[in-house]
Amino acid sequence: MLKGIPASPGIAIGKAFLFDTRQLVATERDIKQDAVPSEIIRFEEALIKTRSEILAIQKKISREMSAQHGEIFNAHLLVLEDRMLIEEVIEGLKKERKCVEYIFSKVIGKYINVFSKMNDEYLKERTSDIEDVGKRILKNLIGVQEKTLSDLKEQVIVVAYDISPSDTADMHKKNVMGFVTDIGGRTSHTAIMAKSLEIPAVVGLEKATTKIRPGDILIVDGTDGIVIVGPDKVILKKYEAKQQKLVKFEKTLLDFKDTPAVTIDGHKVEVSANIELPDDVGSVISHGAEGIGLYRTEFLYMNRNNSPDEEEQFEAYKKVAVKLAGSPVIIRTLDIGGDKFLSQLKVPHEMNPFMGWRAIRFCLARPEVFKVQLRAILRASVFGNIKIMFPMISGLGELKQAIKVLEEAKEDMRNKSINFNQDIEVGAMIEIPSAALTCDLLAKEVDFFSIGTNDLIQYSLAVDRANEKIAYLYKPTHPAVLRLIKNIIDSGHKENIWVGMCGEMAAEPGFVLILLGLGLDEFSMSPVVIPEVKYVISNVRFEDARKAAEKALSLPTGEEVEAFTNKRLNELIPWLKKTKKSA
Ligand code: PEP
Ligand code: MG
Fold first, then answer.
1. Mutation test of ligand 1: which of 195, 296, 390, 529 has the most ligand atoms closer than 8 Å to its C-beta?
2. Is 296 in the pocket of ligand 1 (CB under 6 A)?
3. How many whole angstroms separate alpha carbon 150 and alpha carbon 165?
4. What string of DSSP letters covers 382-423?
5. Per-residue pLDDT at 350
6. I need a labelling partner for 336 at 20 to 30 A (CA). Which of 178, 266, 306, 388 fits?
7. How many angstroms separate the CA atoms of 127 and 112, rounded?
8. How is residue 340 annotated by DSSP?
9. Ligand 1 binding pocket mutation candidate from 429, 430, 432, 485 (most atoms within 8 A of CB)
10. Which numbered atom of ligand 1 lies nearest the CA of 294?
11. Contact between 444 and 166 (Cβ < 8 Å)
């Protein structure tokens, strides 16, 4: 059993598919004496597979280039047939009783070292042949499959060191039943994307890629952050039952999807959805969202060689606005950087990407990219209730600059007599501490705030949101975070603007109670969580939430706040915990 960080709820049971693109590393694993013959067989199989791969490449190169080019691969085939190398690996296996990939990488490493130091130029040049073949054999021994996730032929559970948000977006739900990764945190965009696709996922397992072999049967418990490798019949039965109960629990909650988000004593808030792609709208509607609180438009730019032009973006935004039929759709302008990369925009690799050339910083530096998007949003604004939101605003100067570019785009459209909603509302994401502390100034310039706790927490606590090693420090309930949130809500209300939250914090029932009590006006989250959050809101009194928030603010540590909120939620609505527990 491997323990990681729950990233996307639900249970998946299926066959492991190892997907990895990083440098291959063979980890040291002890084997029993009687496992030596099967390790030798694995080695032989890897050699045969490598040989057929090289022959296929040789054939292709000979055909497409020349026979002479193809002959280069003869040297690779010779390495494969080297008796000394093969025997040294088998000897090592018998003597050291470690897994074959470990022994092989040691032996091949020695060869590379010896050849690279040869005085004879010809022999020295053979080093790269040995390296190439060595890598190929190792890949086959470890069982890493180099494929894209979009063309999987059967249903699998993807196992990887890391999966980028764009690879996640590429997963076709029908063939990826779940995924597990060595690294990552609860609010990384990979985790967020998995939730949107409703794919159970566990991240930050540290050693999943070394403990799991291709084809192993896995249970992924994305609700509790557990992965079980090769379960026996009893465990399988237990998890199949848990899977069914979870589905039943979700179905029960769906009954509350159309409940108005009003507390028992009549305090009304709004519950909206976060989306990444226009196709997510179906799920938004089926889960009872009252609007879209965050449309992460950067996903429209992913997995392609070019950026979407104005027309394509216009069509995408229009489609969402029309489907929402007058309900609010908050379109966030391009937020690349951090853990989201777009190769076509050629953003250089940075030492510290989360604090680097991200989001609005990039857009202000590249107005030609920014204006294409602004024009597309403005054009779509006549087809529904669209609002614009700027990400990663750090202070007043930057907000004014973004508004200025928007005004220029509007002016240009007026001059060309292109229709758009002249009163389109503009909001700022508050996700940087400097913005949270100066939001009295920012509130005078915009129509609404949306608190991005995923980033706000990482910046105010100095805890990388995607790093599993420090995930224990990533605390939404830290008094510093609660105080910042209170300041943002109070400052917004002083200027008569509404304040929402689109970070993951808004989706946790215990935190919902506190946020409600702090006066948050809008809660935006992955569609699947909406019924549960609506249930919480409609089953508490605003007065109780207010008192709970007051108490939470008086507590000195995040742990105490968390324990208090969970206890209080359970006292106020015991049904939720009871029903979930029985799942
Ligand atoms: C946030 O930072 O809380 C947020 C909602 O934006 P993202 O997760 O896309 O950074
Ligand atoms: Mg953010």
1. 296
2. yes
3. 13
4. GGSEEEEEESS--SHHHHHHHHHHHHHHHHHHHHTT----TT
5. 81
6. 178
7. 6
8. B
9. 429
10. 5
11. no
Ligand 1 atom, smallest distance to 338 CA = 10
Which one is catalytic: 76, 189, 267, 478?
Answer: 189
Q: Would you call 502 a catalytic residue per the annotation?
A: yes
Q: Is the pLDDT of residue 533 over 70?
A: yes
Query: In this structure, which residue's CA is closest to atom 6 in ligand 1?
Result: 452
- Give 359-405 pLDDT, tens digit per residue: 999 999 999 999 999 999 999 999 999 999 999 999 999 999 999 99
3-class SS letters over 235-291: HHHHHHHHHHHHHHHHHHHHCCCCCCCECCCCCECEEEEEECCHHHHHHHHHCCCCC
Neighbour tally for 361: CB within 10 Å: 16
What is the whole-number distance in angstroms between the Cα of residue 332 and the centre of ligand 2?
Answer: 10
Residue bearing tokens 């021994």: 141
pLDDT tops 90 at residue 576: no
Whether ligand 1 lies within 6 angstroms of the CB of 452 is answered as yes
Looking at this protein, which amino acid is placed at residue 14?
Answer: G
Contact 358 CB / ligand 1 (< 6 Å): no
Beta bridge partners of 160: 181
Q: Which atom of ligand 1 lies closest to the CA of 431? A: 2
Rounded-to-integer distance, Cα 410 and Cα 55, Å: 60
Instruction: Tell me the C-alpha distance between 451 and 187, whole Å.
Output: 14
Domains, the chain, ranges and CATH? 2-22+148-244 (3.50.30.10), 33-142 (1.10.274.10), 255-582 (3.20.20.60)
Q: Which residues contact 142 (CB under 8 A, 6 or more apart)?
A: 18, 24, 26, 101
Q: Please give the model's pTM, rounded to 2 decimal places.
A: 0.78
Token pair for residue 352? 């510290």
Q: What is the helix (H) or strand (E) element at residue 343, kind and residue range? A: none
Two tokens at 24?
Answer: 């291959």
What sign has the CA pseudo-torsion 545, 550, 553, 558? negative
